[in-house]
Write a structure and sequence with these properties.
The protein has 440 residues and is α/β, with parallel strands linked by helices. It has 17 helices and seven strands.
Length: 440
Amino acid sequence: MGLLALVVAALLIWHRPLLSLFADRAQVQEFVTRFGPWAPLATILLHVAQVLLAPIPGQVIDVVNGYLFGTAWGTVYSLVGVITGSSMAMALARRFGRPWAERLIEREALERLDAYSQHRGTLFLFLVFLLPFLPDDVACFLAGLTPLPLPELVVLATVCRLPGIFVANFVGANAAALTRTQGAVFIAVLAAIAVAFWRYQERVEVVMLKATAWLSDKLKASGKMTMRVIGLDLTTSPKRGTAFAVLTTEMDIVAKGFVTDNEQIIALAEEQRSTLIAIDAPLNLPMGLCCLEESCTCRPASSRKGRRCERELSALGISSYYTTKRSIIKGMVYRAIALKEKLEGRGFVVIEVYPYASRVCLFGRLPRKTTVTGRRALQESLHHLIPAIPSPQESLLSHDVLDALLAAYTGILYIREQTEALGDPAEGLLHIPISGCSVE
């Protein structure tokens, strides 16, 4: 932003000599052609640096390219630079993960964009690349952290950014037709816009991101875009299979069954290209704890038992295992935390759910799931919400698969914003259905 301020100041102070220098476009173009292929290469490399480091707005380079090379060739050179820079940003983010991306770009900018892109998928990225005043360069790094194939992401960024690149080059190519007065006004207007955006960038981005998120949600609702959610009934040991269910927002069951270790779970998520993964297991330790080992000197920040979300469950009359140093599910907690880190490192959105709490919120108190009567009651209730589930008279599913289906369904409710978050964000949130809600 400091560099942008210097550029604006230079335009305001030296606009007269700059107008004189660039008034004769033919003379400037003749000067540039003396550099041969180095001139296009320089502007392409400048665009690559702009995407990766964002020292100056890309639109400035586009306007200059249009002026120097004309609309057609200027657009080509700009597009090559943007494609190269975007591809590098996506590939590097995918290779080295989120911590590396946060070192290269502003962490706050990435988190701001990430907050609005949660569970909105490709359509949201499409709109961010297409609309003005949005952090499209930051979006390249965020896109690289998603499980979407890189070739698809590169094509998406190219198609969406092409209109803006063309318009900027067209403006630059026709700038020479302006009179000195018109040119001065044009530069003044650009400088004013740049200064306003520089001073209020965060506010402008927040407003645009909110509008983009709203538009994305509306388009999804009208177009009935299908997303996939994986529900996992995680076990402590890979030796005992973890039940999974892949459910779409159209209530179709894509797959269900069992996987063993975390690598199989990650492979399943990548194969299914899931929008969301809902895991039935604690995904965070209580604040203050670095582990659950009694021999360690770490102590919880709260004097109360377990995590805040578990205490809030108890206040609702829903029992759960507390995450403490004396917990009987230490192994599951460690496994779940490691799995979450690996999945998020590959760009997946992961949430914590609790099928028993979901069952109580959706259906009230049913017989225990470990009994045949309880399984039949739960499956019959789920069958009404997810018609693809067979009725218990046709085929009675295991209680593990039923829990995985319930976890996936809770994930669908989360996407529809029909869940309630329990707990402290710093300690990890647990998502349960809003009582009485169901996917329409």
